[in-house]
Every structure is written in structure tokens, then in C-alpha cells.
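Slack export, channel: ligand-projects

TW: morning all. Re-posting the request from yesterday since it got buried. We need the structure predicted with the small molecule present, not the apo form. The ligand is adenosine-5'-diphosphate; the SMILES is in the block with the sequence. No rush, but it would help planning for next week.
GE: picking it up
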Amino acid sequence: MTKGFLISFEGIDGAGKTTQLNRLIGHLQGLGYEAALLREPGGTAISEKIRELLLDARNQIEPMAEALLYAAARAQLVQEIVKPMLNDGIIILADRFIDSTIAYQGYGRGLDINQLSEINLMATGGLEPELTFLLDIPASLAAERRRGSVPDRLEKEGIEFQSRVRDGYMALAMGVDRIRVIDGTLPPEQITERIIEMVTLFLKGVDGVEN
Ligand SMILES: Nc1ncnc2c1ncn2[C@@H]1O[C@H](COP(=O)(O)OP(=O)(O)O)[C@@H](O)[C@H]1O
Ligand SMILES: [Mg+2]
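GE: finished. pasting the full C-alpha cell output, ligand included:
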């Protein structure tokens, strides 16, 4: 029996997170793993209500209020869903997690990174993903990919904001081992291959005794 794992996907909107999450979960379930998709903010009744507040383009939300709303949604998700699933041995694939707070509210909005790390810690009780894939693409390409869909409150922020968030993610990745940066401009199939390769290695390392 394996224990559960948390694998998060990060990157600006349009980077390809949802595309890759859907591919990876199909692969893992095909191998017989029990795996679940979660999205942030969201994943519980309360968190989905907070999500509506956060993404509604008509809402004006102060940066710190924004950070705390994300944290509240995350705290509920961790207690209600993530911890029980991990205890049940489920592999959780999360569409965004703690690194989004640092990238968006820190580098994007300009809030203090140390303070945001504290807030993350309070929300998660210290729970971190085992592995994080950061899909990296230029903000201009991301905007091009999203063209035609109605932008939410954060997507409506201009290219400069998205660029700061992208740079923030890369700065964060430099100091954190679990974050694997992947070139998001590659064809989707190639990205999936790389991700599966890394996840397979990771699962082998963890199941090492049995295999
Ligand atoms: N590697 C890729 N190359 C080209 N287009 C992609 C790639 N990955 C995703 N897309 C397309 O870009 C858009 C945004 O992808 P999506 O997976 O929804 O990104 P995210 O969830 O990070 O916002 C979608 O239309 C998707 O089909
Ligand atoms: Mg998505």
C-alpha cells in the first residue's frame, strides 16, 4: 500500500495546468492508482463560495483581503478534503496550492513574502506538496491562449501583472527543491511525457521497498 501524496501544478493562467492535470490523472488511474483532482480556490462547499468572491471580476478586493480569502479557502480544503484523502492513500493532484499565494499576492500584488509564508503555514498547518510542477510560459503567450474566453478577476490584470507573477514563480522555484520547472511552450504531449517520467521516478522512490 502506498500512502497518499500531494502533487501541485502551478503557473500563470493559460500555462497548461488543467490540460496536464487531466492527462496525468488518466495515466495514474490507468495504472491502478487512486487519484483525485482538486482545484484552488475551491474543492469544498465553503471554498467554492470563496472562489466565487475571488474570481468575480466585479469585486474590488484589497490585496491582504485577497490573500486571506485564499488562505481561508485553503484551510477549509486541507482540513475537509486533503488530509482525509492523504490518510486514505489517495494521490491528490492540485490545480494550484501554496505557491500561487507567493507568486500572485507576493510578486503580483506586492505583499510581503515572509508574511504570506506565515499565512500559508497557518492555512495548511505546514502541509506541503511532495512535488510541484511549474509550467512556465511567457505572459504574452498565455494571453494569446486565453483569447476568446471571458477573463476572471485575476486574468483581467494586464500583461505586466502576469509577467511579475511568472517571474515570481521562477524566483520561488530557484530556492525550493520540490518545484520542477517545465517549459510550457512545448507541445502538450512532450510536457505530459516529462511529467509522467518525473512522477514515475518519484513513486518508485517512495515504493522503493516493494519494487
Ligand atoms: N503545451 C501547449 N501548447 C499549446 N497550447 C496549449 C498547451 N497546453 C495547453 N494549451 C491550450 O492553452 C489553453 C490554456 O490551457 P489550460 O490547460 O486551460 O491552462 P491553465 O489551466 O494553466 O489556465 C487551452 O486552450 C489549451 O488547450
Ligand atoms: Mg486551468
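GE: first-pass observations. The radius of gyration is 17 Å. The domain at 5-207 is CATH 3.40.50.300 (Rossmann fold).
TW: perfect, thank you
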